Amino acid sequence: MSDMAVVPFVASSAALDGQPLFIICPGRSFSSVICAAIGQHPRMFGLPEVYLFVTDTIGELIDMDMPLFGIPGVVNGLKRALAELMYGEQTEARIDEINRWLDERRAWTGHRMFEALREMAKGRVLVDKTPTNSRPEALKRLHDAYPDAFYLHVARHPRAVGRSRQKTKIFERYLNADMLEESWRARNQELMEFGLKLRSEQYLYLKGEDFFEVPEMYLQQICEWIGLPADPAAIEAMMHPETSPFASTGPANAKNGNNLGFIESPELRVGKVKEENLDDPLDWYPGGDVYFSKQTRDLAGVLGYDR
Amino acid sequence: MTMTTKIVPKGTANQELAWVGQAFAIPSGFVGTMETLDLENGTERHWVFRLSSAGQTLGLRAVGQPGPALMDRLAELRLTEATSYASLIAAAAGSAVLRRRFADLPAALLIGAAQTVSAVVCTERTLWALISDPHHPNAALQRLFEVDLSQPGRLRARAMDLAELGVGGARIITAIARLGEGLVVAVSDPRRGFDLMLHTPGEAVPDFTSLLTRGAQRFAPNGAISAIASAPMAEGDGLLIGTAALATIEGSPGNWGPELLRLDADGGWELIFGMPRLTPDGLKRPRTGKRPGLDVPKNAAVRAIATGHGPKGRQMTCVAIQDFAGHPVEDRRATSADLMAYAGALRLLASHDLREWFEVKFTSPTGMGCVTCLAVAKTGILVGHEGTGGQEVPSFLVSF
After folding, report:
1. B327 — alpha (psi -120 to 50), left (phi > 0) or beta?
2. DSSP state of A219
3. What's the pLDDT score for residue B96?
4. Is the dihedral of CA B167, B168, B172, B173 positive or negative?
5. Can you tell me the distance from the alpha carbon of B346 to that of B324, in angstroms, rounded to the nearest whole number?
6. Which one of A3, A193, A203 has the shortest CB-CB distance to B399?
7. SS3 state of residue B115
């Protein structure tokens, strides 16, 4: 006779074959080069910055692409991706055709457009690293659209991120020094919490600096995670993000559409990344008497940055 | 149904803290060790006990006290059928046994009552003793001794160099275990994640080589190893390793929850439950498909692990997980010194294959502190824990 009540835990086993991979991270966290590297696998396709989960419709996204009051060039990544997938080339003429094609689909949602990209990719796994995907509202859209996708959370040392962001136009226009540390902490915290909503097989964390020390090793594991072969030829292809169709400037009517730093220097720089520390005063404050908060240091420890 | 094992140790007083040190299933029941601490005068006493398979008391004796020789007492209790006899004896009597058996140990080993033998690991040739106060672990007070047993007439002991382990400050030895002929030492580190080191006797310096580092690449959330046990035989030689969430816990540990890992004799490892991750040792995905704490947010620390033959003689692994019961702390470095704060609600989880797990439901006794050990038998799971009062061996049996 047994008086032991049992409550089983059942391992989940949902198939994720063919699901897209979203790289989620705060800005300036190596995502462009990592996305391009992963996307060079013969059975994957690394997208430029397509911004498909920022607005409700493609029309709203197109309308954002304007000078002064908008974000100039925000649709360029999407245009280049469509041209590459539809025509196998990115020329001014093809981009003109894409402009007309897009204009006829202003009512589409980002999800519908992403599905169109998947169809055009013909079975290849799409890899998206659009930086705004990591904002809470975009994450929700992403998750609603792709509850079974793979999500790779990438981080970089908070000092390196802050210093890098300080040099951007976005910082000059919209941010102040307080926001550099706060945004790193808030975004990474949100991404970790987002990871908890997913099934265990859907979410992985990658400490960016570790990736550059031994990229082959991490690329093999990412292939294993996605369920794609990690043969030497595939890994060799992934070691060359500079061969991505989006590693260059692009045609005059759809310039860039990707991280400018990556376009300027798209090669994978293998080796130890410059060491940072959590103890020194923050570079972006004058006076040298402001330091990382305890909360930031604690979260940094969780993400593998203990100094 | 829960059966509380009531044993009244003769000579124990009400104002005593008591805890079960180790417990082992033997064919006819359980044997175990208990320590008591008189809160008024600081006197420590060591006990061995024997229970029937139904949890009834068959014997309870103090050891290390004047009277018949220890071996005679053990024989009287018919404890010799225990397979872990050597470690049972050593752990049961703690420093008293060491004094008795190894009179030529350095005086440094015979530290006063404030520092006790908190763990002993034995092979045929070597004994290791970790000396610290389990209730107030302090790296500065920890000592690890190695005793060469290969020549019984000439026992040689030495204090191991803990500086090699980086012990000090927040880095504390939280567990030791045997792996083959070697010793595995777990060192907590709330900032970087635990380290697990291997010492193989007779090998050239350095004394220790790294098995797992930085919390098995989970970093700070794997701040401490809180339980180690031999892995099931079906899995080959190895260890099961349970971790604790060294967090500033408000609400639930969530993402900080504990993990269970299995370490092979060759240093390879896998996640049983825990956070999937990329590591220098390859992609680690939990065998169970479950994340930290088996996806139960409140689970905070794996307190004890046991393997044995459960119902119908099937191999069973049982894990005791407890909630955090201390006060939230500003600096989580402070929590590593007090794993005893993980003394909240207890859940028992069991598995026959380490993949499919089930929760064993039971009613915890009131006033239970930390779970200190488990033993799996055909008749049930014996749970040893901390308790106060000194009128009972702090343990209970969850019968199958």
Report:
1. beta
2. H
3. 40
4. positive
5. 10
6. A3
7. coil
Contacts with B288 from chain A: Cβ below 8 Å = 9, 11
Residue B337's nearest CA partner among B90, B137, B75, B199 is B137
Element (H, E) at A173: helix A169-174
Per DSSP, B338 falls in state -
pLDDT score at B37: 75
- Per DSSP, which regions of B274-345 are E strands? 301-309, 315-322
Contact B356 A9 (CB under 8 A): yes
Cα A83 from chain centre: 21
User: Closest by alpha carbon to B266, among B239, B285, B226, B229?
Assistant: B239
Q: In chain B, what percentage of residues exceed pLDDT 70?
A: 70
Residue B98 has pLDDT above 60, yes or no: no
User: B205: how many CB neighbours lie within 10 A of its CB?
Assistant: 7
* Subunit contact A298:B220, Cβ cutoff 8 A: yes
pLDDT digits (tens, 9 = 90+) for B365-395: 887 889 999 999 999 999 999 887 655 678 8
If you measure CA to CA, which chain B residue comes closest to A207? B278
* Grouped pLDDT means (10 residues each) for chain A, 307 residues: 45 65 94 97 97 95 87 94 98 98 98 98 96 91 96 97 81 73 92 90 96 98 96 98 97 94 96 95 89 91 91
B294:A9 CB<8 A: yes
The answer to whether A289 and A303 are in contact (CB under 8 A) is no
Cβ neighbours of B380 in A, within 8 Å? 4
Nearest CA in chain B to A195: B255
> Using CB atoms, which residue from A12, A195, A306 is nearest to B289?
A12
**Higher-scoring residue by pLDDT: B64, B179:** B179
A11, B359: Cβ pair inside 8 Å?
no
β-strand partners of B113: none
DSSP helix/strand/coil, A273: coil
Within 13 Å of residue B8, how many CA atoms lie on the same side as its CB?
2
Chain A, residues 213-252, CB within 8 A of chain B, namely 214, 217-218, 221-222, 224-225
Residue B277 and residue A4: Cβ atoms within 8 Å?
no
* Secondary element (H or E) of residue B190: none
Local confidence band at B75 (pLDDT 50, 70, 90 cut-offs): very low
pLDDT tier for residue B263 given thresholds of 50, 70 and 90: very high
Residue B60 clears pLDDT 50, i.e. is over it: yes
Percent of chain B with pLDDT over 90: 30
Cβ–Cβ below 8 Å for B1 and A7: no
Six-digit token pair at B242? 């349970």
**Cα dihedral sign for A165, A171, A174, A178?**
positive
Nearest Cα residue to B318 out of B255, B234, B227: B227
B330 touches A: beta carbon within 8 Å: yes
Of A2, A192, A294, the CB nearest to B400: A2
Q: How far apart are CA A78 and CA A82, in angstroms?
A: 6
What's the mean pLDDT in B297-320? Answer: 91
Instruction: Write out the two tokens for B335.
Output: 């929590």
* Contact list, A11 vs chain B (CB under 8 Å): 287-290, 355-356
**Mean pLDDT value across residues B270-296:** 93
Q: Is pLDDT of B109 > 70?
A: no
Mean pLDDT of B257-268: 91
